[in-house]
Design goal:
The chain is 80% helix and 0% strand. It has 385 residues and is mostly helical. The chain has a single domain, classed as MFS general substrate transporter like domains (Growth Hormone, Chain: A, Up-down Bundle), CATH 1.20.1250.
Amino acid sequence: MSGGPRLPRAVFLLGAVSLLADVASDLAFPLLPLFLEHELHARNVALGAIEGLADATAAGVKYLAGLGADRGGKRKPFVLGGYALSGLAKPLLALALAPWHVVALRMLDRVGKGLRTAPRDALIAEATPEPLRARAFGLHRALDNLGAVLGPLAAALVLHRWPGAYRLAFALTVFPGLATVLLVALGVREGAVAVKQPAYTEEAPLPPALRRYLLLTGLFTLANASDVFVLVRARQLGAPEASLPLLWGGLSLLRALCAAPGGALADRLGRPRALCLGWALYAVAWAAFGVARSPLELTAVLGLYGVYYGLTEGAQRAVVATLAPGVKLGRAYGAFHLVTGLLALPASLGFGWALETFGPARTFGAGGALALLASLGMARLLRTH
């Protein structure tokens, strides 16, 4: 075992909370395309609209929650309220009778995510020494993604035992959702700051370096349509319905395995360099999804896709804290999530429309080209700093 500095307790605790939350989310999420297609008769454009609106809703709430957590000096109420709202929304999908019901519940779920995300990220950043932040966020994402492995496995078991029982799977999310609320309420402590923070000026504008980073992140977000379209592509290639939760779980397992070592590698390589490489790998993988000729070929590309996640999930959050000296972290993370969330709407909505209009090869290829452009922009930023 390494004798280096250890990550604080808050990172592990909040990671466990995210694990349970993702068990609930990914018990339901990979079944949504099937539920919308077979029971509510929705199309890919509707799916893109649902996911885009959900992410855009979360984006605005994340920014406001970050500001509110800074001004009130309390993070835990936002984290607790966010997990409670999401824990309520997912089981109610079992009662949905029309696509707009799914829209409303996904938006409620994303409001919960918006309430908790920026305050939670600020708690992790404040509790962790700066040289370890990508590692800390990488571990958090690893535990989060482990939950995203267990959730699809549970969904696959439900479909195996009761084919087409989408509503039952949605209803079962009440149990991990309740567990997250209890763990936050009883385990998370306010003010667990392990590192002395700089003096903050709330009215100060975001630093120019952070604004440039957010611009590049926004460009990449336009390329980064919802991963649900990987499931749609697998279905187009003839993958059986019951395999979709397993495919989703496999992707989540790759993300879990790659996130912690990827975060540690990003700390050593330099986080901007890790992002530059990770976005380039995304471009290759996304384009390959579009030209895959079988579910087996698509599955093979998932390995590369997992490496992209490992290099970027921890690094992109750690960079925010590094580039935000003198700015309260709740506000900085709120701005980061505002940019990524708002641009998720045109990304997913446009992708769903383009997939039906131009086909998979051109649509996935265009997304890959945008991601490559963002990677080149990050490389240029590295050369000028």
